Amino acid sequence: WKQQSFSARAEHTSNAVAKHLFQLMDRKKSNLIVAADLTSTEAILNLADAIGPNICAFKIHADIIDGFSEDFVSKLKELSQTHRFLIFEDRKFSDIGSTVARQYGGGVFQIAHWADMVTIQPTPGPAVIEGLKKGQRSGHGIGGALIAEMSSKGALPNKENVAATIQMAHDHPEDIMGYICQSDIDDEPRFVRMTPGVHISEAGDTLGQQYVLPETVIENCADAVIVGRGITEAFKPSEAARMYQTRAFEAYLKRTSQ
Ligand code: UP6
């Protein structure tokens, strides 16, 4: 799978979100996902407008935003259409089916109404996917990114869990669009591999985050890199976004010998 182009892999998938993302990465020449971990709605919208042209997806944590509102969502949606990026809610759903159905489809955030992609912890087993499907009322696939391996120090991966995660993805190709992973865990080309813990300075933070260079993760396993503070805390976020976009996309072109 590693040598295949995004456009070729778009043909291998029946998942509408994976197909869209593969095509978008190819056309926009961007396999950069920003982690917009800011707390003010204004700062998030300004960032989306400034770096929208450089990214394929805009990842947020709705529950860290002060004053999250319908107005914020409609403005973010508008920007996603202007700049052509997917909206990615990093909720890390990880409960029994009936609970995640409500967390996804209702409550304060109404995630199913605006998120193109969501992260899912595989620990509850396949019921978490069934619950999300129930919570989402449109009848489309859910655009789920299964968390196979985390970037934080001491994360608890083990071979059995990773194998079970891969099996869950293979059993739900309409709803699972890809993996959050740190290594090359699967040969199947249809899934989009997304890797967080990416920074041009590999120092990490004081709370267990570990960083790797964009080139290294793309060579190892990533189709798209997820970059947060490398961009949001840069002196000029838009310049940093351009730099990460170029470095990540060139690494992809190199891997696929284009
Ligand atoms: N994230 C990780 N590691 C994982 C899964 N998710 O860092 O294994 C998320 C974090 C954050 C972003 O929740 O939003 O990716 C990374 O941000 P950073 O680049 O600022 O460290």
Automatic annotation (TrEMBL):
- Could you tell me which pathway this protein works in? Pyrimidine metabolism; UMP biosynthesis via de novo pathway; UMP from orotate: step 1/2; Pyrimidine metabolism; UMP biosynthesis via de novo pathway; UMP from orotate: step 2/2
The UniProt entry's GO biological process terms, in alphabetical order, are: 'de novo' pyrimidine nucleobase biosynthetic process; 'de novo' UMP biosynthetic process
The record's keywords, sorted A to Z, are: Decarboxylase, Glycosyltransferase, Lyase, Multifunctional enzyme, Pyrimidine biosynthesis, Transferase
Q: Which residues form a coiled coil?
A: none
**List of residues binding substrate:** 37, 59, 151, 209, 228-229
Outline the extent of the Orotidine 5'-phosphate decarboxylase domain. 31-244
Q: Does the keyword Lyase apply?
A: yes
In the Enzyme Commission scheme, what number(s) does this protein have? 2.4.2.10, 4.1.1.23
- Span of the signal peptide: none
Listed name of the protein? Uridine 5'-monophosphate synthase
- Organism encoding this protein: Ramazzottius varieornatus (Water bear)
